[in-house]
User: Fold this.
Amino acid sequence: MTTLLLTEQVTREDRGAEGNYVLYGSSCAQITEEAEYVKKVFLQLSLFCSFLCFSRKHVSGNEAESQNSGWSGSCSPVARTMKETEEQLLLVSRENQVLKIKLEATREAGVQALRSASQKLYENYQTRSEELKKSHENEKKQIQTYNLQQEEKLQQSSENTSRLAEGIREKCTRIAEMEKRVQRMEEEKKTLMEKKMSFEKRLQQMMSRNEDSKRCLDLQRQISTLQEQICHLRRVIQAQHHSLRGVIQEAEELNNELRSQDKKIGNLTEKLTALETQNKELKDRVEFWSGQPKTKVSKAVWT
Assistant:
């Protein structure tokens, strides 16, 4: 008698809330587990089929011997074992079909989940890329506008500097002319004073010698005229000194304003340099995001 021994029977049922199998977005490990399970079932089926073929041949031989010896085939234990084995084999075959359906559902769910995740990732990337590009464009426009304003200020400061420099040159020229004029007046005053002193000395000599009174009167009138000229020159020189101090003060104020404009120009130049650097960085960013290749969502392939 040949006995069939079922060494391993693997059954697995995964049921949802209503008893039907539901699996969405399964992981690769779960799919691999299902595949290994199916392989085991196929292996068992192969073993059963081999054993079944062998048993049928053996049973056929035994039935022939039993008929010769007068035994009934329906009462043979081997026949009952074969029937039980066929029932078990049918059950395993049904389970195998169910597992195939589950495996296909798992694969399809995995493909759909991967495709959906890839599409969502691509859409998020595109949205973020457009947002960054728009943000960089707006920031670039703001920097360019501010840069233009700073350039206009720099141009205005440069014009003011040129105007101040021209004003200072004019003041310096005027100061030099006034100083020369005052110097000439001082020299003329000195000459008049020397001439007056000479006339006064001569008058004293004439009066000491009791010379002609008419000549003495003429000399006194000349001395008086010289004195008036000297007084006039003193007043003019004093006024010239006052004007000269005013012009010098104006020149100093212009010079201070010129230094202030130079400092402002230096600050504006530094700002423009920094803005040009930022503008270049933003330009590179915009070119980078604009030049990014658009990623296509590929179909998932399960093997």
